[in-house]
Design goal:
CATH class of the largest domain: Mainly Beta
Strand content: 35-45%
Number of domains: 2
Shape: globular
CATH topology of the largest domain: Immunoglobulin-like
């Protein structure tokens, strides 16, 4: 009778330990072929103000995707594959996108969508923004030029 109880307790403790360790690591192990990641925070400004809620993508010739969204201070932490803190070493072109929505308060419908980033910053082959990631401080500030107002068609 004691053996089944001990086995059950041991199994329960083992499961709890596995779940806790998975929770501590976020439940995702880094892929074996993932290179070392280097942390950094980028700040994006537009006309002297922080660029809030902008989508940032870093482009390189690696299979790893790096990017994120800016916060209320215009800051974006480097994140790889949407999950792991930091970015692999290398040279990256940076694209920036931000669409602002005008909402009908009564219905909640989108009335208008406006892109506020100049076209040159939205395309990998035309963006002037480039960064080298590696050891050391990878934090930098980027200016995305003047605010524009490009109407974006609303699709159903």
């Amino acid at each position: 009778m004691i053996r089944p109880v001990l086995a059950h307790c041991f199994l329960s403790i083992l499961i709890v330990c596995i779940l806790c360790s998975a929770g501590c690591s976020g439940g995702r192990a880094k892929p074996a072929d993932m290179p070392p990641l280097f942390p950094g925070t980028f700040t994006f400004m537009q006309e002297g103000e922080p660029l809030v809620e902008a989508n940032i993508i870093l482009h390189s010739d690696t299979p790893w995707s790096v990017g994120g969204m800016t916060n209320e201070r215009g800051e974006m932490r480097l994140v790889t594959n949407g999950y792991w803190e930091g970015a692999p070493a290398g040279t990256y072109k940076i694209t920036v996108r931000k669409v602002v929505f005008d909402i009908n308060e009564a219905t909640g419908d989108i009335i208008r969508q406006t892109d506020v980033i100049e076209n040159q910053f939205k395309r990998e082959h035309t963006t002037p923004l480039e960064v080298e990631i590696g050891r050391g401080d990878n934090s930098q500030t980027f200016d995305v030029g003047r605010a524009v107002s490009i109407n974006v068609p609303i699709s159903d």
